[in-house]
Design a protein that fits this description.
This is GPN-loop GTPase. It is an enzyme of class 3 (hydrolase). Small GTPase required for proper nuclear import of RNA polymerase II (RNAPII). May act at an RNAP assembly step prior to nuclear import. Belongs to the GPN-loop GTPase family. GO terms for molecular function: GTP binding; GTPase activity. There is one protein chain. The protein is of the alpha/beta class. Helix content is 56%, strand content 9%. The protein has a 7-stranded parallel sheet with strand order 3-2-4-1-5-6-7, sandwiched between helices. The longest helix is centred in the C-terminal third of the chain and has 52 residues. The two termini are 26 Å apart. The protein binds guanosine-5'-triphosphate and magnesium ion (MG). Guanosine-5'-triphosphate (GTP) binds next to helix 3.
């Protein structure tokens, strides 16, 4: 955004220069030189948090199908880390949860009242959760700052997410939150699977496809936490993942279309399974928690070796493209300035300018053309900014949990 305001400053300077050019054609050369200088001063100042990257704490984002046991698993994680003298910081991102069975350091419900959001925007439950998350995402840099300030005293950051998995994993806010964590700390995804409900091979396949899509979307190390092993052991799932023939055998008497598809998909997913860590846990009884945390530590190492490098590469590439785009725009502006010579030129300020006959130099697709994701985010941020106060407090926890300025 800083670059945008600089762009506007440059536009203002350019506008002043252009107007004075019209009034005094004799000073044309000098002014256009000044204009060039002011453009050259426009630095592309992309802030990158990669230099502030910390190896600790490890962020565990708990996702999974509705009712798979995410919140219960979180409670067990909180209890287990506490009992093992491990220091954890707990964040709840589910605005619709009625009661939390653990104490959260940051709770989205303290900031956004989901029922009020539903009323105010005339939304259903899913729309309410999505909008609440979007509102919270606009303040997520503050959450990261709070966690960063405590980083030295923490081993894990535990994050619970809404029941409707797609709201988190496929929304812009979910992506923003995940990326904000991953660009500051090693971050892993714990995908909670309802083991007893996955004993049917077709249901198992549909669950694995979901996990696979999350891996694609987040590009973060993923751990499968087969939950509710107090009801059903997860051995069958491990066998199906290790040996597709065992999976095919489970589908033996089923000749339906879905089974044929599941058979084919199991061959495709072989590669996906090989790169996964899987553990069996019971969020209710607490079995398997040590193994799960070992898998988390292994995945955090993996994050530092592979994922972090990939993340840095993607960020550098994005920055390079952005710089190229801005340089191209500046070049166009420079050419237009030369072409317009002494004529009066009105620059677009982004507001609707009805002045007839005026030539707009900055108007045009190029200036506003943005990366699609970024554009979407900015548009929603702008809409949201209209809805929130501008108050910014300096407190840390208080700021995040109570005074973020949402009117809900
Ligand atoms: N037997 C058994 N039940 C469990 C286990 N973990 C969770 N449950 C039960 O599963 C139900 C759903 O658990 P939650 O923790 O609310 O699941 P969730 O994924 O957070 O649910 P949403 O947030 O609504 O998607 C509850 O009745 C839990 O008691 C477990 O390990 N064993
Ligand atoms: Mg829950």
């Amino acid at each position: 955004m800083e670059t945008d305001s600089k762009m506007q400053d440059a536009a203002t300077n350019a506008s002043e220069n252009a107007t004075s050019t019209a009034s005094s054609s004799s000073g044309k050369g000098k002014e256009s030189e000044e204009m060039m200088q002011s453009m050259e001063k426009l630095q592309i100042d992309e802030s990158s948090s990669s230099s502030d990257f910390k190896r600790k704490p490890v962020v565990i984002i708990v996702v999974g199908m509705a009712g798979s046991g995410k919140t219960t698993f979180m409670r067990q994680l909180v209890y287990h880390t506490h009992a093992s003298q491990l220091r954890s910081y707990v964040i709840n991102l589910d605005p619709a949860v009625a009661t939390l069975p653990f104490g959260a350091n940051i709770d989205i419900r303290d900031t956004v009242k989901y029922k009020e959001v539903m009323k105010q925007f005339n939304l259903g439950p899913n729309g309410g959760i999505l909008t609440s998350l979007n509102l919270f995402a606009t303040k997520f840099d503050e959450v990261i700052s709070v966690v960063e300030s405590r980083a030295d005293q923490l081993d894990y950051v535990l994050v619970d997410t809404p029941g409707q998995i797609e709201i988190f994993t496929w929304s812009a806010s979910g992506a923003i939150i995940t990326e904000a964590f991953a660009s500051t700390f090693p971050t892993v995804i714990a995908y909670v699977v309802d083991t007893p409900r996955s004993s049917n091979p077709n249901t198992f396949m549909s669950n694995m496809l979901y996990a696979c899509s999350i891996l694609y979307k987040t590009r973060l190390p993923l751990i499968l936490a087969f939950n509710k092993t107090d009801i059903a052991q997860h051995q069958f799932a491990l066998e199906w993942m290790e040996d597709f023939e065992a999976f095919h055998a489970a589908l033996e008497n089923d000749e339906s279309y879905t089974s044929t598809l599941s058979r084919s998909l199991s061959l495709v997913l072989d590669e996906f399974y090989k790169n996964l860590k899987s553990t069996g846990v019971s969020a209710l009884s607490g079995t398997g928690m040590n193994e799960f945390l070992k898998a988390v530590d292994g995945s955090a190492e993996e994050f530092m070796e592979t994922y972090k490098a990939d993340l840095d590469k993607r960020r550098a590439e994005k920055q390079r493209l952005e710089e190229d785009r801005r340089r191209g725009n500046m070049e166009k502006l420079r050419k237009d300035m030369q072409k317009s010579k002494g004529e009066t030129v009105v620059l677009s300020t982004g507001l609707k300018d009805k002045a007839a006959g005026s030539k707009s130099m900055l108007a045009g697709e190029d200036i506003e053309e943005e990366d699609e994701d970024e554009d979407e985010y900015e548009r929603s941020s702008e809409e949201e900014e209209d809805m929130i106060d501008d108050d910014d407090d300096d407190d840390e926890d208080e700021e995040v949990t109570g005074n973020t300025g949402f009117p809900f």
